[in-house]
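Morning - zinc ion inputs below, output right after.
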Amino acid sequence: MAVTDLKKMLTDARDGGYAVGAFNVENMEFVQAVVRAADEERAPVIIQTSVNTLRYAAPEMFFAMVSAAAAETTVPVAIHLDHGETREDILACVRGGYRSVMFDGSLLPYAENVRMTRRIAEVCGPLGVTVEGELGAIAGKKNAPAHSRLLYTNPDTAADFVRQTGVDALAVAIGTAHGIYKDTPQLDYERLDDIRRAVDTPLVLHGASGLTDEQVRECVRRGIAKVNIATELRIAWTETIRAAQKEAPGVFDPKKAAGRARDAVCGIVREKIRVLGSAGKA
Ligand code: G3H
Ligand code: ZN
């Protein structure tokens, strides 16, 4: 199947009471692992790349890899820019073939976040490119402030933001953070309910690595339609490579360790897909 439209994937998830996994990939093996997992679970899936990853290899390279992998399965596969911070980030991905992007203006003053996100949506809309915006600050990102309840998404502001910008998906801050948690985070489920009541647009949960399965299920039950997972995949990859090299220090074929790491990433993606409820939804 060709690379698919993210917007419909997310409205289907919202209406169907499940969430689609959005998995950050780092290289070809991650792409293969995510698509294989989705194929085996018969699940729609989103492959996303951060701006840093796109400095390592261009959007055209990732788009080509994802297209090739998607062509080998019948499940829907979308490709998405994660946390784009400038117009240039967005346009580079659109030129590279992406049909879905995130503009993250969450650290800007509110009016500026609205203005920039609306401009991105105005450019992307006519091109058929889906736009995810972010409101409230999810801790753990570069330049992000320390974890603070004051930065959680306000439901009324969320409704205003969606109305003014016309985004297709909205990332919300309800207590998750990017990276590794020191303690299990406390999520503000009531806030999520209030946002869901105020906003019809599909909602996105960032920072899902390290949450318990029950926390993720609860967020999905309360209306999250897209769940971003990066750190757990990176850890699985790196630990598997380290173990393989330790076990066989005399092996110089990179495919041996990378193949095992690919299997490890695939296994985690399969588990996450089941927790999100998207298995069997393709
Ligand atoms: O945008 C990416 C994510 O929000 C991933 O967060 O690294 O905590 O899984 P994570
Ligand atoms: Zn994120």
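Note: The two ends are 12 Å apart (CA to CA).

O.
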